[in-house]
Design brief:
alpha/beta, 10 helices, Rossmann fold, 2 domains
Length: 235
């Protein structure tokens, strides 16, 4: 995996995803490390952030590396400085770029022009690092991912897309509920379904948040209540 970009969580194979989570757990358990001694990460942010910025910065320090934060005003990504020029220049100074952008196409362009790995720290397309953190938390609390059910209630945003793909890849049951007009993109659902078919997981898109949270148990109770109402109506 050395030198690879991470633009989508689906850039990882199931085995690589498990390796990333295993490595993260090991580093978390062992505390500070010198694994990234002498390495510098550039945080290239079009969008401001609290948790994402602090997470990357603290992680680099705990792993022995350094971090440089580049604000929107300092760079002017795609306006004052063309994306390809930013990628080329940073490649000469730093060992990795973590980019938080408005458009997913910007992260893709950075990866295309940079000579160092590019990490998607959030775009309108995906938020793979958030999904990785969520999966690690589930595994810590439940002891495994395979066979675990997770419900996502909201809109089909970047976090939902990455979590859907990661859960499907991990053999989880992913249930998504959103109002009409706020669905996951059909392309993401199709890809997740293919991943789930290979892993033994499943992906279900719903309208009712209660059904997403309770799964078949809620659906069974609802059918039972409908049958009872019909029976009372006959009587």
């Amino acid at each position: 995996m050395r030198g690879r970009d991470l633009l989508s969580i689906a850039d990882l194979s199931p085995a690589e995803l498990a390796l990333v989570l295993d490595t993260a757990q090991s580093l978390k358990d062992s505390g500070r490390s010198s694994a990234l001694a002498g390495k510098t990460l550039a945080l290239l942010f079009e969008k401001p952030s609290l948790r994402t910025r602090v997470s990357f910065h603290v992680a680099m320090r705990q792993l022995g590396g350094d971090c440089i934060y580049l604000s929107p005003a300092e760079v002017g990504l795609g306006t004052r400085e063309p994306v390809e020029d930013v990628a080329r220049v940073l490649s000469r100074y730093v060992d990795c770029i973590a980019a938080r952008t408005f458009a997913h196409e910007t992260v893709e362009a950075l990866a295309r022009w940079a000579d160092v790995p590019v990490i998607n720290a959030l775009s309108d397309g995906e938020h793979p690092c958030q999904a990785l953190a969520d999966l690690l938390t589930v595994r810590e609390k439940k002891g495994r991912l395979e066979g675990i059910s997770v419900a996502f209630i909201g809109d089909g945003n970047n976090t939902a897309r990455s979590l859907c793909l990661g859960a499907a890849m991990s053999g989880m049951e992913f249930r998504f509920a959103a109002p009409e007009g706020y669905d996951l993109p059909a392309s993401v659902v199709a890809r997740a379904e293919a991943l789930a078919a290979a892993s033994g997981g499943s992906v279900t898109c719903l309208r009712d948040p209660r059904q997403a949270a309770c799964g078949q148990a809620w659906d069974g109770r609802r059918k039972a209540r409908r049958a009872a109402r019909r029976f009372r109506g006959i009587r």
